[in-house]
Structures are given as structure tokens and as C-alpha cells.
Design a protein that fits this description.
The complex is a heterotrimer. Chain A is built from twelve helices and 14 strands. By secondary structure, chain A is of the alpha/beta class. Chain A folds into two domains: 185 residues, Response regulator (Rossmann fold), CATH 3.40.50.2300; 121 residues, Response regulator (Rossmann fold). A seven-stranded mixed sheet of chain A has the order 7-6-8-9-10-13-14, covered by helices on one side. In chain A, strands 2-1-3-4-5 form a five-stranded parallel sheet. Chain B contains 19 helices and six strands. In chain B, the strands form three sheets. Chain B has a two-stranded antiparallel sheet with strand order 1-2. Chain B has a two-stranded antiparallel sheet with strand order 3-6. In chain B, helix 4 runs parallel beside helix 8, helix 5 packs across helix 11 and helix 14 runs antiparallel to helix 18. Chain B starts with 7 loop residues before the first helix and ends in a 15-residue tail after the last helix. Chain C has one domain: Orthogonal Bundle (ABC transporter involved in vitamin B12 uptake, BtuC), CATH 1.10.3470. In chain C, helix 2 runs antiparallel to helix 3. Classes of the chains: A alpha/beta, B mainly alpha, C mainly alpha. Chains in contact: A-B, A-C, B-C.
Chain lengths: 397, 478, 305
């Protein structure tokens, strides 16, 4: 009995203390600081007057799981885009996250969630082509526009009406890369290794077709994304192989592959697709990387460079998947702002039309953005870079 | 008279709980009196009403996910809970069912069998596969069986990824069996007895009906000779064999039935998603199903369903920071209510936590002003918490990370303390937990899900290995 | 011929790493009959510790210490850190479950594995980290015999692995602690009755197993350079396969199993095709399981009735 009395006394004491503390500690003025610092204009055509516009933008991507590096980069760039835009235009856009772990089943659960959230007017993502297959009809039925910064399977824009993408398809990248390999590099023997993802196999197939049309001999191999060691594969690279084409998603794997190529004294040159575009992760001197976006750190545009610096200050390094996400987010926000300026509320149908009518003269990707009538980006130009001895990327085409 | 599978001491414990006392006693006694039939009917009725209470396709989709999980957990329950076979390859049956349905009911091979034909074929094929994969169980026991079945599951995923270019000698072009990493899209929707099942709502009801049928079937199966045979072979296979229980045949039967249920679930999953992809069937899913079964209580039908509800629904709640916050604080309060008794001690702890927080907040505001100027992500609860938990505006991540490591250490330390020392450390630990939650975890729902999941599994196993609704078991030492 | 030797070297490098991880699994299983699924994550943490030590001391491009002491420091830090982590895991996740049904510690291990993976993601973010070994130890160092090229890093890895395995064998066979470990794995109750402190022996086993995993983590970082939060899962699976093939609970078996898997991977990738690497490894496992369930070097388990 005594013990519980002691507790009772203690309880009263503590309650008294709590009241006193609450009384004393009442007034704290924590002002909520605005999140973004930089106020540079991203594109010059926008007005600098504040625009009243509130909407939520959903973002789907692999934020956890084994490709979390890609998803987190996309998410960070999207957050960055929203912060910048809100600061610059006085809008109040918010992001709603949906983690899919690149799993179509999860994507198919996140999509209805976004659809039933009436604040969400458009969606960025999903990142993978399979996820888009799983959610395309869900978003189509809800007239929800979704803009992917990374899905390259060619059929997607044809199959789904409300789907847009800011990256070119495999049907564009494959022939471009193949042409460069065949003509500029004079490759007659090419080894193509895919990483068993749908991005990779799609691109590998279209490049194979283009190369074989150009008269080169193509050998195909395949590895898995979580393979630790490539030395076995590297040792099978024949001495007369001119180019090894790696349409991979994980740049760090390609760096390892390149190191092991050098270790075993092979002469083949590595040619990578845009998945390898990551100066921090992939820097094998003498190899080539193609990219839809030019290396935005190399674009001679002060505005873009300021953005890069601001991003790196807040989030650190980035690779190739980030800037297209920034571009996709900007496309969505611009469309919403245009609707708001017209005095209307952004609705999903209006967003679909607004995005389809996008016509940005400048973007972080260093080129204008507008869409074809099925939703692909127009005039997708490809840039090819060569990695220099100091690891930097030099534009060669 | 102790039940088969439990020893006397355990069943005495169970008898003791029948003498209920306290406020909730009449309710519990009524619950027990009512019996499993009406209880299950009430549960079904609530589930059936659910789609009419909400318009949100998302919630219905979550319901569909929950029921898919429940069916899988029930199937696994047969193999692991009743027959005591450690089958770590269960997802392979699920995937096989899905892919088989995709083969016979989609545009892939252009075979469009009617659903009434397709489903029995899938179930039969899955059962055969279950028999096949159960054959190793004749020679392998315990952990060895677990290992072999785990690798069957791995092989399944590998095959699914690689069988899109099968070079057969009599064909010019390679045969595309599984679509490789792209999977098989464009699967037909089901149509049973003339009713076309297009909407997610339709599948919800289909799954509910199947769940009802299977639960009833399993309930009667558990009480039958087969069920007793499984229990006997689980507890002591040698003794059971000597008592003329056909242990090997029962093992195969368990595998086959589990596989059949998984295959059936797989086919419905394929129809709901209108596509199958290899990453739908990875080891992560297996872990979730196991977690659902173990959390709920292996060997118990209601446990399997309850576990499935928890495992499938909780991650969805955690997706939005708003809901996640409510969930977290409610769970915290609930845990305290359950763990800290009597109520006076609880009041002390609650008061101390609040007071401690306010004091710390004031101290930090005084010594390091930037420490309190961060922003919360909005919502009613967040506003209240703003003056209690502090959010640094700068180096938020580093502070949060350090706090996280400290929190883990504090929680572990807490488990070694007793009595007053435990209360003393509990207070700052709770505050630390809230701090870490607000600063780091709330903004990263996906990582938080995984964290909480792992932590719950460990906590559950160390405190209550039999799960929520299972019966405590004493295993024969090796 | 040179090609063959090249593959041999590749296989042995890979195999040594798998063997080190497999040893941890085998030792823990031998003593506790527990499949420690969290072991892969311990290895991952070891690799991260090595990375952070390297970065703290200037990074691969401009290290503050000469190469040899730097490597030794990385190894020691990772091994110690991983060992401590293993001990903590045992104390809080497995010890309360000593007498629970077998599935309980298994699920607990899975929970720990999930938790550690998520913690690594939270604390270290999803970015890939690289050791950038070529800047530390250039490719040109090493043995060159005609077309055959073996880099110094691989030689280093193989020799340290061999050294650790010899040390372990000596420990188990020649010291009192080793004798106690063998006794506890044979019959726990009898060992306790003989005055052996079973708890301490178990802690020591976990510590040693995790130390080896930590060392494996740093080695993988050096040879394969990529460190990320998910690496423990795959490596854990492969190490586990190796332990099982060799006979789980059996220390020479774990080493043999690791070697078998490493060589199988290397030769499959070079002589057959990289696509089938995983399939063939799993196929070997299944075959061994069906033909000789206790593993290549395992002794048949006699069950007392």
C-alpha cells in the first residue's frame, strides 16, 4: 500500500511541475522559416508577381528498396522544384509522396490513393515502365495526368491517354547510340549487356536492331542488377570487341565493370546509356555516355548553374534521374499556374489539357519542352559525352 | 484434458484465463459463449458493409490487398502452423498461380479460357506443383527444408526473369514464356457465371466470398482426422508415425493444399492487376506473409486473418504523415496504458513526459535558438506538438540521426532495467522517440514503414512468441 | 590456360568473401541451431564503417596515412564495429528466445535484418558509396604473367581471408574457448553441467562470426567498390548458400562451400553465360540438398528418440 501512495504523491508533484512549466514556457515564437533560399528565375518567360495557386502534386517512385538511390534522387529534385517555384511565384504547391519500390503491385495501390485524394491534380512518375502498365488505366479513368521522368518503353504513350514523359523513348535512344557507335567509333563487334530490367532490355533490343542494320555483329549478355562481381563476364569479352554497350540503370555497377575491364587489360570501349550518366559514380576515362539531357553542370547558362549549386548545397550530389524530374514537376506546375492565372481552379481534366499544351522555351534540361500529340517529348535530342581523364564529361555530339 | 499439441502446464494456463474478472469480464464471457460461427458471421457482415461506407477506390483496393494477404496467410497456416513444415518458398506458388492464369487468360499466347475453366486449371496445377515441391520434405526436416524451399522461391524469380528467350530447336524465334522483366500485361478480367468483374469493388466481394468459404472449410478441416494428424506430425513426427499416422502423405497434402490456395489467390491477383511482373513475387512478400502469420499467431485461423489485416493495412496508414502521426501517438499511448500499471504510475509517467518535454524545449530555445525554429508539416496534431517537441532548422538530419541512434540504445537499455530505474529512463526515451519521429521519420514514410515493421517483429517475438491469437507452445528440445 | 587461371583467381576471390560470411552463419547455427538472417546486414554495416573510416582519413584520392596502415585501420574498425553489433543483436533479439519454438528466433532475425536495412537507409541515405580503390591501389600493381593479370587488391583479399580462416581454425581447435565452443555446439546442457559458461561462449561465437563478416564487408568494398544499404541481402543469401552447401554448423564446410560458390559463379559467367549465374548456384544447392542433405562436409544428424 505504501508504494502506491508514494506514486500518488509523486504523481501530484509532477502534475504541479508540469503546470508550472507550461505556464512559464508558454510563449515561444517559432516563426516557420520558408524552406527554399534561392530565388533565381528558372525560366525567363514566367511572371515574377505572386500568383495564388494551391494544388497538390503526387509523386510516385522507388523511395525505398534496392533502387532507392534513383527514387530518392527523383524525390529530392521534385521537392527542390516545388520549393523553388513556390518561392519564386508565390504559389502554394505541395508534394504528396507515394512509395512504390518499383513494384507494380504497390504502384497499383498508390494510384487509387492519389485518385481519391481530391487535392491531387497531377502525378509525377511512376518511374518504371511496368508500373505505368499497372496504373495507366487507373489514371486514365480518373483523367489524371501523369508525367514520368524516366520511363522509356515505347508503347506507353500510345497506350495511355493521360500519360506524358519528358524523356525520349527507347526507339529514339537506341538508333542514336547505335549510329554513333557504328559511324563515329567504327565499331564492328559490339557486346551488349543488359541488366534484366525492363528499361535495359527495351533499349538493348532497339540498339541491337539498329546496329545490325548498320552491319555490325552484336553479342548479347545479361547480368542482374545486384551482381557483385563482373570479372567472369569481363574475361569473356573477346579481344576483338570494339565497344561494350551498357544500358544499365546503376552507374556504380558500370564503374566496377569498367575497372575490371581495365584490370584484365581489355581494350573495349564502354558506351553507356543515360542510366550511366553520373559523373560521381561513373568516370572511366575514354568511355562514352549518351544522355537525353546535356550534363546540366556543363550547360553555359547562369540560371541553370545557380540551380545546380543550390541543389547541391541542400541535397548533395546527383546523377541523371534528377533533372528530368525537375523538368516534369515544372511542367506540371506551369500548367497549373496557367490555369490559376486564368482565374480557374486547376482540375484534373484541365491539367491534362494544360500539360498537353506545354510550351516552355527553356528548361533545366537546356532545351525547350513541348509534347507530341501522344505525349512524348518533342525534338528529343541526344547528347553524347566522352569521359575525360580527370573524370569530367565532355560533350562530343 | 490437455489438447494435443500442448502440454499440461500450457493448458492449465489457458484454463486460468477462463475465469475473467474486471470491467470487461461480461463482454469477454459473452464473446466466448457466442461461439466461432456467429463471430465469423459478424466479421463477414462488417467486411461486406465496408465498400458501401466509403467511396474511395483506394480504401477498397486496400481491402482487396488485405484479403489477398489473408488468403495467403491462411494457406501458409496450413503448411507452417498446422503441419509444422517450414516452407520458405511459398511465394513461388503464388507467382505460379498468377503466371499460369496469365498464360491461359490473356493476350500473351492469345488463349482466352473462360474463368470457370481457368480457375480450376490454375488450382489443380498449383496443387501439383505443391506436391512436387513437397517431395523434398520426405527426406529433409526443419531447417534443411526451409533452405531448400527458400531457394525454390529464388529459382522461380530467376526463371520468371529469364524465360523470355527460350531457344527451342524446332522454332526459329525464341519462345517468350514469361515476358522476362516486363512481365505479362493485358490479362483478362474475370467473368463468373455471366457476371463480368471489372471494378475493384467486384473483386472485393469475390475475395470476400472465397475467404468465407475457405475459412469455413479450414475450420472443419482443423477438427477432422487430417487436422489431428497434422498436429500430431508437427509435435512429434516419430511418435505419430508409430501411431500409424501417415506422416509423409500428410506433409504432401499440406503442401498441396497450401499451394492450391496460393495459386487461387495468385490468379485473382493477376486479374485485379491485369498484369504480372517478376518483382511481384520476391522474398520481401514472403517475409510479409510470414510476419502476418506469426504476428497473428501461427496455427490459428483467426490469427492468420488478424495478422494479415495488420500487416497489409498499417503500411497504408503510414503513407500520409497526418495519419502516421495519429497512429504513432495513439500507439504510444496505448502501449503505455497496457504496460504501465497501476494508473497512478501511468499518470506519473505521462505527466513526467509532458513536463520533461516542455523543460527541454525551453532549455533548447534558450541555449540554441536555431534549434526550435524548424517547421512541422502541418495538421492539427502538429500544431499542438510544436511547443513540446523541438525541431532544429539547421542540420536537422544530423541531429535526427544522432537522436535515432540514441533512441535505439535507450530502448535496448530499457529492456534491461526494472522498477523505478525503468520508469526513470522511460520518460526521456518516450520524448526522444517523439523527437526522432517528428524530425526524421514522419517525412520518410517508406523508410519508417520498414523500420517499424522490423522493430515490431523483434518486439513481438521477444515478448510473445505465439503471436496475438496463437497458443503458447513448448517445443521438444533437440 | 591463362583464361582458366584468371577465372580461378576470380573465383577464389569471390569465394573467400562468401566463405567469411558463411563462417558466421555456420558458427551461429552450430551453437544455437539458429539461421541468423541478420548476418548479411552486419556485413553491410562493416562495409560502411570501412568506408567512413576511409573518408574520415582523407578518402582514397588523398589519404592522410600511407596505404598499409590505412587498410589495417579500416579493417580493425570494421571488424570491431561489426563484432559489437553482432553481440548487441544476440543480447537483445536472440537471448530472450533461447527456449522458444524454433521459428521465433528466425522471425526475430528477419525483423532485425529489416530494421538494420531501414536504419542504414535512414542514416546513410540511398546513395551508393564507392571505395574508389584504384586511386588507392592502382591496377598496375600486381602480378603480370603474360595475358594473366592479377591485381594487388585481389591478392590482398585472398591472403587476408586465408589468414583469418587459419586464425579461426587455430582458435577453434587449439584454444580453450574453441574447445568450449565445440562442446556447446555438441550438447549445450552437458557443456553447462561441465562448468562452461554457455552465455559467454555464445557471445564469443557471435562476436567472432560478426568480426569475420565485418572483414568481408571491407574486402568487398575494396574489390567491388560499391557500398549501399541493400548489399547485405544478396551477399547474405549467397553466404548462406555457401554455408549450407558445405554443411551448416561445420567450419571447414563453410570455407569449402564458399569456395564452391565463388568458383561456380566465376566459371559460369565465363564459360556459359552471365545470365545463368544465380540459377546454377541455386541448382547446385538444391542438388546437394537432395543428394546429401547435411552438406558436403556435414555429418548426418542423429536424432535421439
Amino acid at each position: 500500500m505504501r508504494k502506491s501512495r508514494i506514486w500518488l504523491v509523486l504523481a501530484l508533484l509532477v502534475a504541479a511541475l508540469a503546470v508550472v512549466a507550461a505556464g512559464c514556457g508558454g510563449d515561444d515564437d517559432d516563426t516557420t522559416e520558408p524552406a527554399a533560399e534561392d530565388t533565381t528565375a528558372m525560366d525567363d518567360d514566367g511572371t515574377m508577381e505572386p500568383v495564388e495557386c494551391t494544388a497538390s502534386i503526387g509523386i510516385m517512385g522507388p523511395f525505398t528498396g534496392d533502387v532507392a538511390a534513383i527514387g530518392q534522387e527523383q524525390l529530392n529534385w521534385a521537392k527542390f522544384a516545388v520549393d523553388q517555384y513556390n518561392t519564386e511565384h508565390g504559389t502554394s504547391f505541395t508534394l504528396v509522396e507515394g512509395d512504390t519500390q518499383l513494384d507494380p503491385a504497390q504502384a497499383a495501390t498508390v494510384a487509387p490513393q492519389f485518385v481519391s485524394n481530391s487535392d491531387i491534380v497531377a502525378v509525377i512518375g511512376p518511374a518504371g515502365s511496368q508500373e505505368i502498365e499497372a496504373v495507366g488505366s487507373i489514371y486514365g479513368d480518373a483523367s489524371m495526368a501523369f508525367v514520368s521522368p524516366s520511363a522509356t518503353a515505347t508503347n506507353l504513350t500510345e497506350d495511355f491517354d493521360t500519360f506524358f514523359r519528358v524523356v525520349p523513348t527507347d526507339a529514339d535512344q537506341g538508333p542514336t547510340d547505335a549510329a554513333y557507335m557504328a559511324e563515329e567509333l567504327g565499331a564492328m563487334n559490339v557486346l551488349i549487356i543488359d541488366d534484366q530490367s525492363s528499361y535495359s532490355t527495351g533499349l538493348a533490343d532497339s540498339t541491337t536492331a539498329a546496329l545490325e542494320d548498320a552491319g555490325a555483329t552484336v553479342t548479347r549478355e545479361s547480368v542482374s542488377q545486384d551482381q557483385t562481381d563482373f570479372s567472369g563476364l569481363v574475361s569473356t569479352v573477346a579481344d576483338d570487341t570494339d565497344v561494350v554497350f551498357l544500358p544499365w540503370q546503376v552507374a556504380a555497377n558500370a564503374q566496377l565493370f569498367g575497372n575490371q575491364l581495365a584490370e584484365q587489360g581489355k581494350d573495349a570501349v564502354i558506351f553507356g546509356s543515360d542510366g550511366l550518366f553520373s559523373p560521381d559514380d561513373f568516370s572511366i576515362a575514354g568511355s562514352y555516355v549518351s544522355s537525353f539531357a546535356p550534363d546540366i553542370t556543363g550547360i553555359d547558362d547562369a540560371a541553370i548553374q545557380e540551380l545546380v549549386t543550390a541543389f547541391e548545397a541542400e541535397y548533395g550530389d546527383f546523377g541523371t534521374f534528377g533533372p528530368p524530374t525537375f523538368a516534369a514537376t515544372t511542367v506540371v506546375m506551369e500548367a497549373a499556374t496557367a490555369i490559376c492565372e486564368g482565374g480557374e481552379e486547376p482540375t484534373r481534366e484541365a491539367m491534362v489539357e494544360g500539360i498537353a499544351a506545354t510550351n516552355l522555351s527553356e528548361s533545366i534540361l537546356g532545351q525547350p519542352i513541348s509534347f507530341t500529340d501522344i505525349g512524348d517529348i518533342q525534338d528529343a535530342t541526344f547528347f553524347i559525352f566522352q569521359v575525360q581523364d580527370d573524370g569530367s564529361y565532355q560533350l562530343v555530339q | 484434458m490437455p489438447r494435443i499439441g500442448t502440454d499440461e502446464w500450457v493448458s492449465e494456463q489457458e484454463l486460468r484465463t477462463e475465469y475473467y474478472s474486471g470491467l470487461t469480464a461480461p463482454a469477454r464471457r459473452a464473446f466466448d459463449r457466442v461461439g466461432p460461427g456467429p463471430r465469423f458471421f459478424a466479421f463477414l457482415a462488417i467486411c461486406a458493409l465496408f465498400p458501401f461506407l466509403t467511396d474511395s477506390a483506394f480504401l477498397i483496393r486496400v481491402g482487396v490487398n488485405v484479403m489477398l494477404f489473408a488468403l495467403l496467410a491462411l494457406g501458409l497456416n496450413i503448411v507452417v502452423g498446422w503441419a509444422g513444415l517450414l516452407d520458405l518458398g511459398y511465394v513461388a506458388f503464388y507467382g505460379f498461380g498468377a503466371y499460369m492464369y496469365a498464360w491461359i487468360s490473356s493476350a500473351h499466347f492469345d488463349v482466352h479460357l473462360p474463368t470457370e475453366l481457368a480457375i480450376p486449371i490454375v488450382v489443380a496445377a498449383s496443387a501439383c506443383l505443391g506436391l512436387l515441391l513437397g517431395l523434398p520434405s520426405w527426406r529433409l526436416v526443419g531447417d534443411y527444408l526451409a533452405i531448400t524451399t527458400l531457394f525454390f522461391a529464388q529459382i522461380f524469380v530467376e526463371l520468371a526473369l529469364n524465360l523470355d528467350r527460350v531457344n527451342l530447336p524446332w522454332r526459329d524465334e525464341p519462345l517468350d514464356l514469361t515476358g522476362g522483366p516486363n512481365g505479362i500485361p493485358g490479362i483478362d478480367r474475370m467473368s463468373l457465371l455471366g457476371i463480368q468483374l471489372d471494378d475493384v469493388r467486384d473483386y472485393y466481394f469475390l475475395l470476400l466470398m472465397l475467404l468465407a468459404l475457405i475459412v469455413v472449410g479450414l475450420f472443419y478441416l482443423n477438427d477432422s482426422r487430417t487436422g489431428r494428424g497434422w498436429r500430431a506430425s508437427r509435435e512429434d513426427p516419430l511418435a505419430a508415425e508409430l501411431m500409424t499416422t501417415p506422416v509423409n502423405r500428410l506433409k504432401l497434402l499440406a503442401f498441396a493444399m497450401g499451394a492450391a490456395i496460393a495459386g487461387l489467390t495468385g490468379s485473382i491477383f493477376a486479374a485485379v492487376q491485369t498484369g504480372v511482373f517478376p518483382q511481384n513475387f520476391e522474398v520481401t512478400l514472403l517475409i510479409m506473409i510470414y510476419a502476418a502469420l506469426i504476428l497473428g499467431g501461427a496455427g490459428s485461423i483467426s490469427g492468420a486473418v488478424l495478422g494479415a489485416i495488420i500487416v497489409a493495412a498499417v503500411p497504408e496508414i503510414l503513407r500520409t504523415p497526418e495519419n502516421a502521426r495519429w497512429l504513432f501517438y495513439c500507439a504510444l499511448v496505448l502501449a503505455l496504458l497496457v504496460a504501465v500499471r497501476p494508473w497512478t504510475r501511468l499518470a506519473v509517467v505521462a505527466g513526467a513526459v509532458v513536463g520533461f518535454g516542455l523543460v527541454v524545449h525551453q532549455l533548447v530555445a534558450w541555449l540554441w535558438p536555431a534549434g526550435v525554429e524548424g517547421e512541422t508539416s502541418g495538421g492539427t496534431l502538429a500544431g499542438v506538438l510544436d511547443s513540446w517537441v523541438f525541431l532544429p532548422a539547421e542540420s536537422q538530419d544530423t541531429v535526427g540521426n544522432v537522436a535515432f541512434v540514441l533512441l535505439v540504445a535507450a530502448v535496448l537499455w530499457l529492456t534491461t532495467l526494472r522498477g523505478n530505474a525503468r520508469i526513470a529512463v522511460l520518460v526521456p526515451t518516450i520524448y526522444l522517440a517523439a523527437f526522432v519521429w517528428e524530425n526524421r521519420l514522419v517525412e520518410q514514410p517508406s523508410v519508417t514503414r520498414q523500420l517499424l515493421f522490423g522493430a515490431i517483429l523483434v518486439a513481438m517475438m521477444t515478448t510473445r512468441p505465439q503471436g496475438l491469437l496463437g497458443t503458447p507452445r513448448v517445443e521438444n528440445p533437440i | 590456360m591463362d583464361f582458366f587461371v584468371q577465372q580461378l583467381v576470380n573465383g577464389v576471390t569471390l569465394g573467400s568473401v562468401y566463405a567469411l560470411i558463411a563462417l558466421g552463419y555456420s558458427m551461429v547455427y552450430g551453437i544455437l541451431k539458429l539461421l541468423n538472417f541478420a548476418h548479411g546486414e552486419v556485413y553491410m554495416i562493416g562495409a560502411f564503417i570501412g568506408y567512413f573510416v576511409l573518408t574520415a582519413l582523407g578518402g582514397a584520392s588523398s589519404p592522410m596515412l600511407p596505404v598499409a596502415p590505412l587498410l589495417i585501420l579500416m579493417f580493425l574498425a570494421a571488424m570491431l564495429g561489426a563484432g559489437l553489433l553482432g553481440v548487441v543483436i544476440e543480447r537483445f533479439a536472440y537471448r530472450p528466445l533461447r527456449n522458444a519454438p524454433r521459428i521465433a528466433p528466425l522471425i526475430s532475425a528477419i525483423g532485425v535484418s529489416f530494421f538494420l536495412q531501414a536504419s542504414a537507409l535512414l542514416l546513410f541515405s540511398a546513395q551508393f558509396r564507392t571505395y574508389s580503390t584504384p586511386e588507392l591501389i592502382p591496377f598496375s600493381t600486381g602480378i603480370e604473367a603474360g595475358p594473366l593479370r592479377i591485381s594487388l587488391v585481389r591478392i590482398l583479399v585472398i591472403t587476408s581471408a586465408v589468414f583469418l580462416m587459419i586464425a579461426l581454425t587455430l582458435l577453434v581447435n587449439r584454444t580453450r574457448l574453441g574447445k568450449a565452443m565445440r562442446a556447446v555446439s555438441y550438447d549445450r546442457e552437458a557443456a553447462a553441467m561441465m562448468g562452461i559458461d554457455v552465455d559467454r561462449v555464445i557471445v564469443a561465437t557471435f562476436f567472432i562470426g560478426s568480426v569475420l563478416a565485418g572483414a568481408a564487408g571491407v574486402m568487398v568494398g575494396l574489390v567491388f567498390e560499391r557500398v549501399f544499404h541493400f548489399m547485405g541481402f544478396v551477399a547474405g543469401l549467397k553466404g548462406f548458400t555457401a554455408a549450407v552447401i558445405g554443411g551448416i554448423g561445420n567450419i571447414p564446410g563453410a570455407m569449402l562451400g564458399g569456395l564452391v560458390i565463388g568458383l561456380a559463379e566465376a566459371f559460369t559467367a565465363s564459360y556459359i553465360s552471365s545470365r545463368f549465374q544465380n540459377l546454377i548456384v541455386f541448382g547446385i544447392l538444391i542438388t546437394v540438398m537432395l543428394v546429401r542433405p547435411t552438406g558436403l562436409l556435414g555429418s548426418p544428424v542423429l536424432k535421439k528418440v
